[in-house]
Amino acid sequence: VKNVLKLLLGVVTSFAGFIEVGSLSTSAQAGSAFGFQLLWAIALAAMGVAVLAEMAGRLAALSRHTVAAAIREHFGVHFYSVPFVAEALLDVLVLASEIGGIAIAVRLLTGTALLWWVLPAALLVWVLLWRGTFGMIENGVSLLGLVSLCFVVAVFRLHPHWSDVAHGLLPTLPTHHHARYGFIAVSILGATISPYLLNFYASGAVEEKWSEKDLVTNRLVSGLGMGFGSTISMAVLVTSALVLRPRGIAVESYEQAALMLTPALGRWGLVLFAASLGVGCFGAALEIALNFAYTVAQAAGWNWSEDLVPRQDARFSLVYTVVVGVAALVILSGIDPLRLTLLSMALTVIVLPIVVFPFLVLLNDEAYVGPHTNTRVGNAVIVLIVGAGFLMALVVVPLQILGGQ
Amino acid sequence: VTGGPRRGPAAVAIALALSGCAPDPRRTIGDATEGALSWASSAHLAVEGWTDRRLSTRFTRAALERCQRGLEEERASLASAPDLADARVATAAREIAEMSALTAARGEAVEKEDPDAVARSAAALSASAARLREGPGA
């Protein structure tokens, strides 16, 4: 019974923690601009992140190494510095987006200026990191994310034509705005397959002392959790496609996106949208700040654990303190959080091969995972998704910045 | 409508320098028209929610302010276009400026909780949006 409960909790936390600023904004934009046509991108990204999370958990359970520690050990410090710097920069940008997302959620409910809420949001993140434990962060905050199920409820209340929805799972080219279509597809990949998730998932497995007997749990948590989680992203896209697109609204701000739940959920729509955004961003901000500290500590060989009190891993605690402060400053500089989010998500896809391909080498090395090395199919799926996303990003990101259609 | 990183004047200048040619006025107008109509529709949806008491006055006011800012950005993108001398571009810029002013008026009417004034500005905004839709970029 205990194992089943552990498994259920793992699935629910992965599932409920899926929605954050990147997935919410990219799905809302995709639905409003292209209807159901980009559902395939969410499905593809969900498959990629489920496979990668399973690999990260397997590596941690069998080698007791996190992704960062294993890459550093296998390839050496000089090589590791490249993915380390890339991931660290991305973590700061994405963390800034998440803190911005929390502030926007409060702004939607109060009508006050965004900048008033950036420092309180950052402080709240820091206090929970300082005082909380890994279990509290992983389970407590993620469970609150169940509020985002409101998007699934909204879809059923809006009665879509399910055959049209299913058609969106097959990739098709749009009739207009090709560069924008590609940019959003790439951003969806980046929002879902975030490098921080890999190391965070593996660090969590090490914190919880997973071993070979947890491999089945790992497979189910990563597969079911990410799979169900992607249904929430899809529900955001479908709701946006049903409510905003017919009115000719293309989402460019959170005020526009926040309107999508009102027709289906009435006066609760705005509250639930803000709650989903706020809770999702809060959970993601905790995970990213923690992952940043994990990555730095593991690279430097320091003590690291969220379950230790700060004086037992002072440098680890200092790192998340500094990164939360820096990310808050990025948002306070006045940058538009939605644009920062979309750009961060697209840049993630460009950086992804630098982080993922060394990781794949480890998953094919018996010294780390014993007889449980990757199958050819597993390797091929990741190489195809990450490689195709990277090539697409190289084309569409400059095109979109330069105003291509 | 872009929604990703938007084209600032610098990006437009780089794009022009790279392409070595002037932008097509129809495309300039088309982009701005699409963006402006999206903001106008958002304003309608927000006010619809306010009228049905599904959205608070505070949120609706903030949403309308954002829509007005969006319309101003679209107007500014036309104003900074090198082909403003083209009559079609100038007409579209004027229409979007009017939509922006009407959205601001609508926000003030919502603030005063005056449904009649909200309805009047809604009708005027719809008419302006229709002119833009059928106008220079059509």
Helices and strands in order:
The complex is a heterodimer of chains A (405) and B (138).
Chain A: H1 2-16, H2 21-34, H3 39-63, H4 67-75, H5 77-110, H6 115-131, H7 134-144, H8 150-158, H9 162-167, H10 178-192, H11 195-207, H12 215-243, H13 254-257, H14 262-265, H15 268-300, H16 314-332, H17 337-363, H18 366-369, H19 376-401
Chain B: H1 9-19, H2 25-51, H3 57-79, H4 87-111, H5 115-134
Can you walk me through this structure?
- The complex is a heterodimer of chains A (405) and B (138).
- Chain A is mainly α and 405 residues long.
- Chain A has 19 helices and no strands.
- Chain A starts with a helix and ends with a helix.
- The mean pLDDT of chain A is 88.
- Chain B is mainly alpha-helical.
- Helices cover 77% and strands 0% of the residues of chain B.
- Chain B contains 5 helices and no strands.
- Chain B has helices at residues 9-19, 25-51, 57-79, 87-111, 115-134.
- In chain B, helix 2 (25-51) runs parallel beside helix 4, helix 3 (57-79) packs antiparallel against helix 4 (87-111) and helix 4 (87-111) runs antiparallel to helix 5.
- The model of chain B is unreliable at 1-21 (pLDDT under 50).
- At the A-B interface, helix 5, helix 10 and helix 17 of A face helix 1, helix 2 and helix 3 of B.
Brief account:
With 405 residues, chain A is an all-alpha fold.
Largest interface by residue count?
A: A-B, 38 and 35 residues
Percent of residues in β-strands of chain A: under 5%
Number of H- or I-type helical stretches of chain A:
19
The share of residues in helices of chain A is: over 70%
Number of helices of chain B: 5
Helix content of chain B: over 70%
Rounded mean pLDDT score of chain A: 88
The helix/strand series of chain B, from N terminus to C terminus, equals HHHHH
Estimate the global geometry of chain A from the Cα principal axes.
globular
Helix/sheet category of chain B: mainly alpha
The whole-number mean of residue pLDDT values of chain B reads 80
Q: Flag low-confidence runs of chain B.
A: 1-21
Shape of chain B: elongated
Count the beta strands of chain A.
Answer: 0
Structural class category of chain A: mainly alpha
